[in-house]
Amino acid sequence: MPESLCTGSQSEFEYPTEPPPRRHGPLGYLDYRSYKPWLRDEFTFRCVYCLWREAWEPDGPHAFGVDHVQPQPTGAEVDSSYDSLVYACNTCNSTRRDVPPPMEFREETLRPHLRVLTDGTIEARTIAGQELLELCRLNRPLLIAARHRMLTLIRVLQQSQNPEALRLLRELLGFPPDLPNLAVLRPPDGNARPEGIEQSYFSRRIRGELPEFY
């Protein structure tokens, strides 16, 4: 079993250490949902708020969508520029509704604000973290149970000697098979960060550089 999968931490639910700069910059889509392939890659195929992964959903990416970080005033022109969007599960997206998050996602990470405990609950480390926890209802009972169940399952598989265990871990903790090939997409107004395509997970898989787990 890979050493990185034998730790006692909740690494599957750890928020990024630093806010990564946007790797992609597609421009000009009239329908903001057209940015979804880019955001899937940008946010590593998981919800920015609760960290739930596509691989853990029966409907995969269909259970996720494009979320405007800042609410859009009724009647006002919608800001659907790429940098104003994040990737979120449909539940967190609909729960947050039109309330802005208490922190700026383009400038900071959630790691100083939130931490997932071994029992599946999320602990708020700051006032802003508590506000986001309540805003997205990150400790709703069904989600706590699901996180705890997933953490338990992963630990059991890590300790198993059954050859099937590693295959299952690859499915749970590996990248999805349908990685978006961003190189074939043609945003209407081009791409402000074309160099990001070479660092996309599809391109890294083609080059044999994609990690087995994340």
What does this entry look like structurally?
This protein has helices at residues 36-42, 90-96, 127-135, 141-159, 163-173, 201-206, and strands spanning 64-68, 85-89, 114-116, 122-124. The chain has a two-stranded antiparallel sheet with strand order 1-2. A two-stranded antiparallel sheet has the order 3-4. The chain has one domain (16-202). Residues 1-9 have low confidence and may be disordered. The protein is α+β, with helices and mostly antiparallel strands. Helices cover 28% and strands 7% of the residues. The protein has 6 helices and 4 strands; from the N terminus they run H-E-E-H-E-E-H-H-H-H.
Which labels suit this protein?
single chain, 214 residues, two-stranded antiparallel sheet, disordered N terminus
Please compute the radius of gyration using only Cα atoms. 18 Å
Largest sheet: 2 strands, antiparallel
CA-CA gap between termini = 15 Å
**Overall domain count:** 1
In which order are the strands of the major sheet placed? 1-2
- The overall strand count is 4
Number of alpha- plus pi-helical segments: 6
Structural class: alpha+beta
**Which percent range describes the beta-strand content?**
5-15%
Shape: globular
Question: Into which percent range does the helicity of residues fall?
Answer: 25-40%
Q: What string, H for helix and E for strand, traces the elements in order? A: HEEHEEHHHH
Which spans of ≥5 residues are poorly predicted at pLDDT below 50?
Answer: 1-9
Global mean pLDDT: 89
